[in-house]
Design brief:
Largest sheet: 5 strands, mixed
Order of helices and strands: HEHEEHEEEHEHEHEHEHEEEEHHH
Structural class: alpha/beta
Strand content: 15-25%
CATH superfamily of the domain at 124-236: Rhodanese-like domain
Distance between the termini: 53 Å
Shape: globular
CATH architecture of the domain at 124-236: 3-Layer(aba) Sandwich
Number of helices: 11
CATH class of the domain at 124-236: Alpha Beta
Helix content: 25-40%
Length: 343
């Protein structure tokens, strides 16, 4: 199949304008499944064609080990979409989770073929995906917390910066491939302890729990459905949340508020704030927490250096950056990180 046109052809400005003028509501959902998939290019193309007809937007990764998807579906097509998923030979009985908080989440549909659906970069001999940790519902997870179990946040530190379970250990990493080795260091000599793991939707905990079991940890448990399912369950059952703050999400929303607690500060002025944004300077584009005051002061940039840089014409920016005359440090404006709870 010629997939030349199976990609978005519009620029970001046009995409935003198009979505803002839609006369229907959208539903943001996510799902994943570890299952052996073959003929990935054909699958990728077919999914794109079928979902594009339903005006579905989002980001989807497929690999030989399975599928990981976060998408925005027109509300009028959600039943049709679910029927499509559940009728697919490889995706039957998959759990489709609605977002905790709606908003403009995705601008286009992107489906990519990957080596892994979670980029841990570990050897296949380091885990057995058929043997994973115990799946705990919100009641069981809360009770285990009350009973003193060790809680591990299986996300990047900047995700835990704005929201987490109280007393959770937040590994000081910002890339998935560094996460599992760091977790093993943090849990050294706790092979027999009760371990609780959580992540956004559950997918990162699946392989991580299998990895820990393979390396000798005896009592490994994971929050079923992740923070997203937990938030729905506690709201439905009128239970006080043990997760505080916001749930970071990798889409246009940048976060879903779970409780009113604000755990973080602006990376520039250190005022209380939990709003993530990317520096407008595309040569920098660092992810940061920035308050409205600093956003206005620096024209949506992270610093005066970036503010001054984006005032140059685009061609001048490219020339300066390519020549090395101006360099940008791929770090936060200030190295402010969350208080990392250690054992």
């Amino acid at each position: 199949m010629n997939n030349k046109f199976l990609y978005n052809q519009k620029n970001k400005k046009d995409l935003i304008n198009q979505i803002d003028h839609e006369d229907f509501k959208r539903v943001t959902v996510s799902f994943y499944k570890y299952i052996h998939l073959e003929k990935l290019e054909n699958l990728r193309d077919q999914l794109f064609l079928d979902w594009d007809k339903l005006n579905i937007l989002g980001r989807v990764y497929i690999a030989n080990e399975g599928i990981n998807a976060q998408i925005s579906v027109p509300e009028k097509h959600i039943i049709q979409f679910k029927n499509y998923i559940h009728s697919h030979e490889n995706l039957k009985k998959i759990s489709i989770k609605p977002a905790v908080q709606e908003g403009r989440s995705f601008l286009k549909l992107t489906i990519k073929i990957k080596k892994e659906i979670v980029a841990y970069g570990i050897k296949k001999s380091d885990y057995n995906i058929k043997k994973v940790g115990n799946h705990l519902n919100y009641k069981q997870f809360n009770k285990a917390i009350d009973d003193g179990a060790i809680i591990i946040d299986m996300r990047n530190y900047y995700e835990g910066e704005i929201g987490k379970f109280k007393n959770a250990i937040i590994p000081d990493v910002d890339r998935s491939k560094n996460l599992l080795p760091e977790v093993r260091k943090l849990l050294k000599n706790h092979e027999n302890s009760k371990i609780l793991m959580y992540c956004t939707g559950g997918i990162r905990c699946e392989k991580a729990s299998s990895y820990l079991l393979h390396h000798g940890y005896k009592d490994v448990n994971q929050l079923c459905g992740g923070i997203v399912q937990y938030a729905h369950d506690i709201k439905k059952n009128n239970v006080k949340s043990k997760f505080i703050g916001k749930n970071f999400v990798f889409d246009y929303r940048m976060g879903e508020r779970i409780t009113e607690d604000i755990l973080s500060v602006c990376h520039i002025c250190e005022d209380e704030c939990d709003m993530h944004t990317n520096c407008l300077n595309q040569a920098c584009h660092i992810l940061m927490i920035q308050c409205e005051k600093c956003k206005k002061k620096y024209d949506n940039c992270c610093s005066k250096k970036c503010t001054d840089f984006i005032k140059f014409p685009i061609e001048k920016q490219k020339e300066l950056f390519k020549s090395g005359a101006i360099k940008f440090n791929a770090q936060k404006s200030k190295d402010i990180k969350p208080k990392l709870y250690q054992l």
